[in-house]
Each structure stands twice: as C-alpha cells, then as structure tokens.
Amino acid sequence: MRIIKVLSATALISGLSFFYFSPAERRMTNPPGAMRDSPVSAGALEQAVRYNNDILPTPEPRQTAPGKLPAQDGGATIAPVRDWTVIYYSTTKDILSYSLISALLEMKKTGTTDRVNVVVEAALPVRSPSGTLSVPSIRMVLGKAADPEKIAGYSRLLRRYTEGVIDSAVLKAFSGDIVKTENNADTGDWRRAAEFINWARENYPAKRYALVLFGHGEGFLDRKKFLNNGKGVLIDAVTHNYVTLPELRLLMAATGKVDLFAMHSCVMQMAEVAYQLRDYADVIVGSSDLQFGTGYDMRGFLDALNAAPGASSKALGADLAAGYVRRIHDRASPRVPGAQASALSSSKLQGFTARLDAWVDAVMALKDKRVFRTAIHEVVRFDIFAITPKTANAAAARAYSISGDLYDFVRLINENLPQDDPVSPLARGRGIELMDFIAGELVAGYSYTGNSTTGFGLGRAHGLAIHVPPELFYEDSLEGFNSISETNYWDLPFAKETRWGTFLNWLYAAK
C-alpha cells in the first residue's frame, strides 16, 4: 500500500478559499459552503418546481448521439472502441451543483480523445436569463478539449452562483456536447442511473471503464427515504429519493463490472459499502471522512488515462485518491482541517473477510471487556451524521459517530490486551495479521493530510472504515437508531456473511 502524507495540519495554508477563489473573487451574495454535505437552498428548488421547469435555454440536443457515426447505408454504427470510457453520474440539484460544474469545466479542458470517452449525466438547478428556474438532467458527451481561456471565462460566469443555482450561460461551455435534456427526472432512482450507464457502455464502448458517482453519501446508513433528513447515495434533493446500499448492488448488477469505481461522496469508504461492490469493480476509490467540494482532480485523471491507458487500475485509483487530498491541501481553508482518501483492491476482499472473521472469533473469547470500551472511546471516528459542518462540534460528532477506522480499532485493542488472559496471544496475532493485510494488500493507496473533522490525526487511519458502536446513540438508543434507517444494518450482506454482525451484537449486548 502506498501511504501518502501531503502535509501536516499545521502546514495547511490558511486564507485560500475552498472553491478556488482569490480574496478579490470571494465577494458574492451567497458563497457556497465548504462542506460536501452543506444544506440545500430549499427556496430556490421549491421555486424551480413551482415554475414547472421552463425549457432550458441551451442549444438543441443533437439528433444523433456524438458516439454514433454515419454508416454507408444511412444508418448508424457504434463509436469505435477506445481504451477507456469514463462514465460520470450526478444527482446534485442543490448547493453541490457549483462543485459539479467546476469539475465538468475542468474535464472539458481535456475532453474526449482518441483514447478516452467522457460521458456525463448531471442534474442541477439552472436560472435562465429571464430569471426562470429549472432543474434539468443533462446528458452529454464531452467533445474535444476546449480552449483554457474560454473555460476560464465560463468559470468567471460560474461565480454568479447564488442560492444554489447555476447561471444558464455557464452551460454554453458544453453547447456542442449535449445529447439530451430532461426536466423533473427522479435522478435518485437507481434504475435511472442504470439506464444511463448502460447507454454509455453501449454507445461508447471501451476496453476499460471508470464509473464516477457524484453526490451526497452517508456510508452504510440509509436513512428513511422521502424525508428531509434522508441522505443516502446519490440523493435527489427535490424528490428525496436516493440509492440505498442494497440498491447500489442492484445498480451495479444491472450495468456490469467496471475497472475503477469512484465515489465523490461523504464517508463512503467503508467495509460494508465495499462488500456490496466486490463483484462489480476492480478498484474502489472513496473517502471515509466528509468529502469536500474541491473533489477529485478529474482533469488530471483524464490526462493520466490518455498518457498511460494501460496503467493498472490500482495505480490509477491510488493516484486519484492522492490527487483529491493534494487539492484539499493546496486550496485549504480554516474550515477544512484535513482530508483523506483511499483505493481498495476488491480482489482482496475475500482474504480480508477471512482474516476479519478469525480476529473476531479470537477477541470474542476475551474475558475482560474493558479493552473494547477503550477502543470504542479512542478510535479514529468520522462524522457520518455531518454534525461538524452545522455546529463545528467535533466532540458531538465523535460521540455520535458510528463509523471508525478499522485498522485503528484493531490496533487499540491489540495495545490494550490483558496480559493475564490466556487468549490474548492468539487475539494479538490475529490482529497483526488483519492489520498487515489491510495495509499491505486490501488498501492499494492511502493519502491524507491534517486531521479529520472530528479532530483525529488522519495518519492514524488506514483508508477503511467500519461500523463501530457509538458512545452516544443518535435517537437515544439502538432501537431509536434502527427506526430511522431504511435498511436494517444486520440485513446487509457484510453483516450476515461475515462475523462482524455477530461481533457488533456481542458488543452492543456487553455495552
């Protein structure tokens, strides 16, 4: 595993705006928040729905998709097979639209090439020149690289961003790329995402595929759908529908395996999530912590694919994770204490679960349960409920967190094993085997800088989180917590097919 420390928290450069602005460019009415999971500007979205989405003032979509080439018989043929197709799907419709368009403008600087297709479907709130609001879902295939000066001009237009809405003039940057627009689509429906991914694979075939999902995330937690606090993978901020963890597996089963799967979503790099994807992605890239709007260096990723299309998926995934952390460091602000991301090798998940089960069986034989209380109290935790963006209360985020770094949890238990317990040597050995496998085999690359939003040094983490019992229950009790969940944790394949579900039940009972 490659562990890359960008810089310590004390070396982070304060004073730079999170969203790339210089101080002179930060004079806006409602600047976007720094956190990935900042609250939506509900008023603008409600107004957009009230207007029932007038026609988006962009050029007419092409009658034939850009990937369709004229055939001699007057029909159409599929685009030539390229080395890579990058498939990018987003369901923002809220304040994240700023980050989304920033990423797309960066990708447009490279665009589609003879080696790499770039296919996008993005939903976002848009304001027309007349002031009318709409919430279109836009499907496009990025054309050739755009002039950087023109992109810079569109980036300046983007700074008119207010109330979570994009100025429609910005979309002219993609005027030659748009294949289709559709208003009022439920982009949080996994079947819609599957239709787009299958369309992209059919019309823009490649030897290898990278799938990037952009939107909110909440780890293994699927809060009740269609409620204002529901926020799973790819939430649609208008319909409140989203892709649950079981539906994520259905989505991937319906669309097929990809070489690289990346989530630009908060706290998704968890064992429970990776286990859902184990058969459908060679490499899984994500963050166990809150993930910020600066996002992955998608232009750098496209350039890497073009420069070395034969590079291993593990190397590409590790570099994508490192690029995200590097961008956070370079554009740091006092509101962003640090960041981390990792790349997981899914072929190692079977070996990982075997070692996890062996460790669980060994530690459950311990007679002294205080060792677990120490680990639960001190483990590196992540703000799965996004408490810190709203309150800056790191202590509360730690206490309520149900997500902790697995390597650190095992390390703490190993360091506090009772000397007089006869099963301690076996437990210690199993712990070392598990930690070594996580660091040396499962995690292909881990990058970090500074501290987590909960106040832990991210150098203690190793790139894989897991459900760890909290110190305080969200909704006051385990039963209360379960009552807000769309998906029962113990129904997840990871909880049922590994010993972790049994271990958690044992810990909760002991607690």
Question: What are the main properties of this structure?
Answer:
Rossmann fold, 17 strands, three-stranded mixed sheet, 511 residues
Task: Give a brief description.
This protein is of the alpha/beta class and 511 residues long. The chain has helices at residues 42-50, 97-108, 148-158, 190-203, 245-255, 271-277, 298-307, 313-330, 349-363, 370-378, 388-391, 394-400, 406-415, 424-442, 478-483, 493-497, 500-510; strands at residues 2-5, 69-70, 76-77, 82-91, 116-123, 126-127, 133-134, 136-141, 166-167, 178-183, 206-214, 258-264, 281-286, 338-345, 403-405, 443-450, 465-467.
Summarize the structure in words.
The protein is globular. The chain folds into two domains: 32-256, Rossmann fold, CATH 3.40.50.11970; 349-510, no CATH class. The chain has 17 helices and 17 strands. Strand 12, helix 6 and strand 13 (281-286) form a beta-alpha-beta unit. Helix 7 packs antiparallel against helix 8. It is an alpha/beta fold and 511 residues long.
